[in-house]
C-alpha cells in the first residue's frame, strides 16, 4: 500500500495537475477536463467509457504518484484516440484482442513521451508493451495479434497478457449515432484545447502522435458528387472493394463504381503562413478522405514554392498516414508547382485535391484534371470547386 496523507480523490486531482503542467502530457489536458473523473469502491483497477474515467480506491492506494500518473494518462489516451467508439467492430470479433490492441498503442506512446520517467513510472502489473507496435494504431495491432493467434493455433497464447484496466465497449455500443458524433466533437474540442496549452509549453501536440481531430467536411457527399459527375455512365459494380455498408452485417457485396475513386493527388500548402493548428486541420481532412472513400492510390504532396516532399500511399496504408507523414515547407506560396508535377505524371490522377489558406503569391493554377480546393479563408479558386473550412 502507498502511504499518503492525501485522500485518493485529492491524489487524483494532483495527478491531473502534474500531467497538465508537463510539456510531455499537456496535450491531454483538455481530455482530462472532459467528462467525470472520480474514485470509487468496487472498481478493480481503472475504467473508461470513452468520456468518463473511474479509478478503484484500493487500486489507487497501491500506486506511487508516478504510477498513478501513468494510469491517468493511460485512461485519458483511450478517450483521446476514441478507442471505445472507433473499434467496436474489433471488440465484437474478439474482445480480448481488441482490449490488448488498444493498450499496446497507448502504453508504448506514454513511454515514448517520457522515456526518462520524469512524470511516469510503470505500475507493477502485466502490461501490453511492445516496441514493434510503435506508431501503429489499434486496428493494425489487432490484426497482427490475430494472425499470431491463428498461426499458433492456440487460444491461450496470450493467457499471460491482457489489459490491466476495463474498457467500456459495452457502454459505448449503446450510444446513438447522434450521441457518438457529439462525443467525438467534444473530444476534438478538448484535443484542440490541449494542443493550445502544449504549444505554449513548447511540448508535444496531438498531431505529433497521430491523433487527428474530426473532419469539418462531409467528404462522402462531396466525393460522391464528384465521382458521379466525372465518372458518369459507370453503372456496374466492382467486387475489388467490398461495400462497407454491408460489411457490418457480415454480408459481402460489391461496391458501385460511383463510390470508387482512382489515383488522387493531394497537395498540402506548407508555406510560412500555415501554422501548426491549420496543418493539423488539413491532415484531419486528409485522414477522413482516405477513410471515407479510399482512393486506389494517393500522391500526397507538400508544397510552398516547390514540391518539398512527396509521399505515396496505397490501399491498406491509409490508417498509418497520420503517424507516418512528415510535412515539410515554410517558404512562399506558389501552387503552380503542383500543376507542373501533375502534368509530368505518367499516370494521371482522377482528382486533384488542394488544401491551402488561399493566400497565393502567384495565380491559381488551372489543372487539366478535375480539381477540388479546400480553403481556410474566403479566397476562392476561379477553377474547379472550392470548399471552405474554419
TrEMBL record:
- Putative metallopeptidase domain mapped to chain residues: 31-255
Q: Which Pfam families match?
A: DUF2201 (PF09967), DUF2201_N (PF13203)
Q: Where is the VWA-like domain?
A: 264-390
Q: Which InterPro entries match?
A: Put_metallopeptidase_dom, VWA-like_dom
The residue range of the signal peptide is none
| Superkingdom field | Bacteria
Q: What is this protein called?
A: Metallopeptidase domain-containing protein
State the organism of origin.
Spiribacter salilacus
Amino acid at each position: 500500500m502507498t502511504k499518503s496523507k492525501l485522500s485518493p480523490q485529492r491524489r487524483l486531482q494532483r495527478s491531473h495537475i502534474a500531467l497538465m503542467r508537463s510539456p510531455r502530457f499537456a496535450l491531454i489536458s483538455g481530455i482530462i477536463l472532459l467528462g467525470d473523473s472520480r474514485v470509487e469502491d468496487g472498481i478493480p483497477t481503472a475504467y473508461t467509457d470513452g468520456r468518463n474515467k473511474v479509478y478503484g480506491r484500493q487500486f489507487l492506494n497501491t500506486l506511487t504518484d508516478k504510477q498513478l500518473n501513468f494510469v491517468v494518462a493511460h485512461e485519458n489516451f483511450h478517450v483521446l484516440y476514441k478507442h471505445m467508439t472507433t473499434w467496436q467492430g474489433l471488440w465484437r470479433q474478439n474482445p480480448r484482442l481488441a482490449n490488448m490492441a488498444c493498450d499496446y498503442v497507448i502504453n508504448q506512446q506514454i513511454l515514448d513521451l517520457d522515456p526518462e520517467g520524469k512524470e511516469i513510472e510503470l505500475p507493477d502489473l502485466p502490461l501490453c508493451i511492445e516496441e514493434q507496435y510503435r506508431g501503429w494504431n489499434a486496428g493494425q495491432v489487432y490484426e497482427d495479434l490475430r494472425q499470431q493467434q491463428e498461426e499458433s493455433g492456440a487460444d491461450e497464447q496470450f493467457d499471460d497478457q491482457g489489459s490491466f484496466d476495463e474498457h467500456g465497449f459495452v457502454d459505448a455500443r449503446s450510444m446513438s449515432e447522434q450521441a457518438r458524433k457529439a462525443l467525438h466533437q467534444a473530444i476534438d474540442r478538448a484535443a484542440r484545447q490541449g494542443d493550445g496549452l502544449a504549444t505554449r509549453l513548447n511540448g508535444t501536440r496531438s498531431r505529433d502522435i497521430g491523433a487527428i481531430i474530426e473532419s469539418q467536411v462531409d467528404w462522402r457527399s462531396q466525393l460522391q458528387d464528384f465521382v458521379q459527375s466525372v465518372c458518369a455512365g459507370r453503372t456496374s459494380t466492382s467486387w475489388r472493394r467490398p461495400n462497407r455498408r454491408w460489411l457490418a452485417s457480415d454480408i459481402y457485396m460489391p461496391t458501385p463504381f460511383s463510390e470508387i475513386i482512382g489515383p488522387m493527388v493531394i497537395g498540402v500548402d506548407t508555406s510560412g503562413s500555415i501554422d501548426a493548428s491549420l496543418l493539423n486541420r488539413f491532415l484531419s481532412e486528409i485522414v477522413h478522405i482516405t477513410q471515407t472513400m479510399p482512393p486506389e492510390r494517393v500522391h500526397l504532396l507538400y508544397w510552398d514554392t516547390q514540391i518539398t516532399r512527396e509521399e505515396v500511399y496505397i490501399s491498406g496504408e491509409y490508417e498509418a498516414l497520420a503517424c507516418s507523414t512528415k510535412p515539410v515547407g515554410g517558404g512562399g506560396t506558389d501552387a503552380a508547382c503542383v500543376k507542373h508535377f501533375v502534368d509530368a505524371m505518367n499516370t494521371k490522377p482522377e482528382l486533384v485535391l488542394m488544401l491551402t489558406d488561399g493566400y497565393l503569391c502567384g495565380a491559381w493554377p488551372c489543372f487539366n484534371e478535375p480539381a477540388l480546393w479546400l480553403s481556410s479563408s474566403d479566397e476562392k479558386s476561379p477553377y474547379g470547386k472550392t470548399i471552405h473550412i474554419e
